[in-house]
Amino acid sequence: MFVCSCFGVTEEQVRSHADAGACTPRQIASACKAGTDCGGCVRRIQALLGRGSCPRRQLIDQGEQPLAAKVPEAA
């Protein structure tokens, strides 16, 4: 089922981005543009994200940086 008609983003794609660490509608938008045009899908994205656990949030709570935020060390 489509969540974002403007960009053709499906529920499965939103869940996939969430599984990869996107925890907010803004992070979903960064990943696939859903919610950045008319905005009609933002509430649906919020509902799909729910209030479940967020891998990125768990890392931050543990004092670790998410993989995407880690800066490689200079050689």
Description of the molecule:
The protein is mainly alpha-helical. The chain contains four helices and two strands, in the order ββαααα. It has a two-stranded antiparallel ribbon with strand order 1-2. A hairpin with a 4-residue loop joins strand 1 and strand 2 (9-10). The longest helix has 9 residues, at 11-19. Residues 66-71 have low confidence and may be disordered.
Oligomer: single chain
First CA to last CA: what distance? 47 Å
Provide the succession of SSEs.
EEHHHH
Strand content: 5-15%
Low-confidence stretches: 66-71
Please give the count of helices: 4
The portion of residues assigned to helices is 40-55%
The whole-angstrom Rg is 14 Å
